[in-house]
Amino acid sequence: MTLRINYFDVVQRAVGTGDAKRLAQAIERLSATFRAGRPLSYGDVETRRAYLWHLLPAHVTDVSQLLEDHPALFEGAALKVVALGAGPGSEVLAFLDVLTRRRARGEPDRLARVEVQRVDHFGSWDKDFAALYAAAREACAERDPAFGVDYELEAPASGLVADLTLPLGVKVRDAVREADLVLGINLLSELPPRGEPELPEGTVGALRTLYAQLKPGAQVWWVDREGAPGVRERLEAAADLALERPGVVRSELRTRHTRCGSKPTRKTRTLYNRVKLPTTKDQDQPVLNCRTAWVALTVGPRLEGE
Ligand SMILES: C[S@@+](CC[C@H](N)C(=O)[O-])C[C@H]1O[C@@H](n2cnc3c(N)ncnc32)[C@H](O)[C@@H]1O
Questions:
Q1: Is 42 a pocket residue for ligand 1 (Cβ < 6 Å)?
Q2: Whose alpha carbon is nearest atom 17 of ligand 1?
Q3: Would the pTM count as exceeding 0.85?
Q4: Hey, which CATH number is domain 57-265+289-299, 3.40.50.150, 3.40.225.10, 3.20.20.30, 3.40.1180.10?
Q5: Where are the beta strands (DSSP E) in 66-199?
């Protein structure tokens, strides 16, 4: 049996709770902001920390499981990934999780090197990422001592700072050009104005540029909260834009339901004793279920003259 990693423990080791009363209030504000569809800024430390406790463990499970469901990803020797709207790096943690879980289980993966470049509006996530990455790497090395020896994951400490409602900068374009996989997870639903079915006009331009950079064989996956207003329309629109490039194949919009693989720890339960969400008592806990809609795009070979 492979060692289970508890991501509430990882969050605790990485950032702790600080002032638990203030953190509980920040979780209440975060949850209320999501429910009301109001704009959300991750510029302050309390909102970021609330995000880590309330959502990160469920998101890591969801992305890790989505990756595991695609064994072809593990067949090449190396994989370059760009994660758009990566925030604290849930996608990096998910790759660490799935790579070490598969190896520890004895899967004969060829994949020996994964590089993940985070891209986000807020550079302030870098500090949280550094702490989470260190704590997660430690847990993963415990799970599989061959991690870091036989195979490795590289994720730069600095994410690329970019507003994806504006034209794409050179650094993001360069990263996308080399990518085998571009992930956009829980990003489209957060672009302003939230809750609207249309993509921001600036994002339409940015995505056209992004799709034009992709190399043949590259994939893009858009994943988002299924129930959030306007999300399905935004996913469809983001996917359809890719079809302007000849040779791109898109999947149908599919849905998934993942249960968080981490059980709230004693620390988590103590924290949530202070959290009052205006729903039912049993929802005064972190998010433990992810219902997502997602779509995958694959770039075909370049056509003559392209
Ligand atoms: C809900 S978090 C998702 C984080 C991570 N992908 C996950 O699923 O756990 C959304 C992220 O999108 C980023 N974001 C929101 N608007 C953005 C924009 N216009 N450009 C780039 N990133 C943006 C936020 O800063 C935040 O980190």
A1: yes
A2: 121
A3: yes
A4: 3.40.50.150
A5: 78-84, 113-120, 152-154, 160-161, 181-185
